[in-house]
């Protein structure tokens, strides 16, 4: 399950202004992007050798260090909020509306996948072959996510393993990344203009990739119409209590456009298409004041808790994945700027302006009632997180690839080159689980307990 860094190769014309070196046998891809053992769309990209922010890169075939640093910081942030979030609720995932530090992690991953794809499919002589390879890579990532987050591996305090296929969770973080990756890869392979216009103005770039932008607009409109226009009827579910008795709950809805935890269209579509038994059984809204007497931490249910509190809900569901694809598409356009513009100053300006516009738009939508919500992946949440990702990436690029402050970021760069490995071993608790499997005579006498982690 360990991840390996993507191979560094020569880049096509337009990245550094040099000649193209592509391999038709590989579908014309300039480098490897996502594999089951790859680094979450890790790419090889040019590293600059100039010392001013106005000059462009002069070398070819080196990694763009800021991509790996961005990815590495995101991985470390993910581990931090997972491990510390229980102690500091302010940085843990928001129970419902609103955003916290943890809520920026996943969109940042999707954003950098999109940036990487601009390099992965810079030259595509054989579109059919490239599509096939993208499908295979996405399938590997989806299946890995199904294995890791479907419930097969035991928990820290349970040495049993295996999963009932009738109840396996079908969606998850890696599954959503796989879906977004494949959808955006298709856009980059099939929906773009003619020959490269290196250094062309912004309007030329928009015209070249107008079909991709149109796809993003269609996805956004579709999501918004379904979220606010679909009728959500009453529904019921069954929960098995610790004493194996069955409890039936009826959730009263009969509304349109509701964005609360119990009666939103996102959950309804997942229940109808995936089946409620295949959704995430411990949704974040269990930490709301309505569902926990210890809110914003998990706790016992209040006596007057709503009937939807114990219902499964998947934060990586089907309808909300449309906006995840939009996040990845925006990252792709940021990657196009790197491909088509040589000068650092032009790149930073063309990243910063649209990112700032997205950030302002997202905050404005939230103020006017379209609240930021990670579980629903709302439009305002998409704008704020993607705009923040663009500005953050521009800042890292300025420090690492323009002014060469690389040494302080070397650990983050290394983590970014092995992002999938860290996600599998740490974020999915595989490393603690493996350690927990070795004990002395009794399961509770394990190494984790010895070092103060296990209970």
TrEMBL record:
The answer on whether this UniProt entry bears the keyword Manganese reads no
Low complexity bias spans: 42-59
A Pfam family found in this protein is HGSNAT_cat
Q: Heparan-alpha-glucosaminide N-acetyltransferase catalytic domain location, by residue?
A: 63-179
Transmembrane regions listed in the UniProt entry: 69-92, 104-122, 134-153, 173-191, 212-231, 318-339, 351-372, 378-400, 420-440
**Keywords, A to Z?**
Membrane, Transmembrane, Transmembrane helix
Question: Segment Disordered: which positions?
Answer: 1-59
Q: Origin, by domain of life?
A: Eukaryota
Name-wise, this protein is Heparan-alpha-glucosaminide N-acetyltransferase catalytic domain-containing protein
Record the organism.
Sorghum bicolor
């Amino acid at each position: 399950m360990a991840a390996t860094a993507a191979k560094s190769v020569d880049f096509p014309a337009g990245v550094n202004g040099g000649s193209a070196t592509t391999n038709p046998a590989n579908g014309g891809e300039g480098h490897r992007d996502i594999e089951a053992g790859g680094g979450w769309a890790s790419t090889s990209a040019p590293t600059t050798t100039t010392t001013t922010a106005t000059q462009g890169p002069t070398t070819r075939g080196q990694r763009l260090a800021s991509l790996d640093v961005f990815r590495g910081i995101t991985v470390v942030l993910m581990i931090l909020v997972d491990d510390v979030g229980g102690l500091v609720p302010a940085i843990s995932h928001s129970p419902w509306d609103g955003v916290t530090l943890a809520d920026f992690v996943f969109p940042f991953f999707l954003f950098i996948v999109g940036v990487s794809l601009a390099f992965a499919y810079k030259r595509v002589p054989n579109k059919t072959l490239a599509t096939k390879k993208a499908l295979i890579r996405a399938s590997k990532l989806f299946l890995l996510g199904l294995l890791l987050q479907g419930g097969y591996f035991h928990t820290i305090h349970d040495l049993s393993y295996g999963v009932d296929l009738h109840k396996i969770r079908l969606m998850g973080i890696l599954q959503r990344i796989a879906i977004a990756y494949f959808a955006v890869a298709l856009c980059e392979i099939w929906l773009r203009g003619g020959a490269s216009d290196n250094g062309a103005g912004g309007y030329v770039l928009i015209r070249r990739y107008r079909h991709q932008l149109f796809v993003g607009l269609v996805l956004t409109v579709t999501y918004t119409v379904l979220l606010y226009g679909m009728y959500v009827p009453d529904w019921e579910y069954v929960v098995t209590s610790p004493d194996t008795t069955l409890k039936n709950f009826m959730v009263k809805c009969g509304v349109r456009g509701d964005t609360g935890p119990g009666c939103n269209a996102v959950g309804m579509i997942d229940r109808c298409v995936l089946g409620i038994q295949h959704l995430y059984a411990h949704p974040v809204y269990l930490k709301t004041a309505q569902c926990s007497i210890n809110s914003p931490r998990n706790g016992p249910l209040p006596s007057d808790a709503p009937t939807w509190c114990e219902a499964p809900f998947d934060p990586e569901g089907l309808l909300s994945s449309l906006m995840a694809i939009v996040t990845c598409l925006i990252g792709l356009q940021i990657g196009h700027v790197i491909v088509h513009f040589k000068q650092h100053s032009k790149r930073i300006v063309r990243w910063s302006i649209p990112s700032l516009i997205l950030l302002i738009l997202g905050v404005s939508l939230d103020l006017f009632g379209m609240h930021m919500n990670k579980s629903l992946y709302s439009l305002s949440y998409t704008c704020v997180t993607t705009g923040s990702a663009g500005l953050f990436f521009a800042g890292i690029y300025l420090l690492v690839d323009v002014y060469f402050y690389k040494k302080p970021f070397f650990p983050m760069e290394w983590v970014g080159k092995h992002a999938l490995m860290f996600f599998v071993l740490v974020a999915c608790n595989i490393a603690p689980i493996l350690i927990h499997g070795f004990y002395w005579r009794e399961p509770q006498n394990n190494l984790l307990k010895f070092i103060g982690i296990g209970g």
